[in-house]
Amino acid sequence: MRKSRFTEQQITSAIKASENGSKVKDICSKLKISEATFYSWKKKYGGLDSEEGRKIKQLEALLHNMERELKTLSADKAMLQSVLKNFFTTNDKRQAVNFLQDRFEIGTRRSCRLLDISRSVYHYPSGQDRQRQ
Question: How far apart are CA 85 and CA 81, in angstroms?
Answer without folding.
Answer: 6
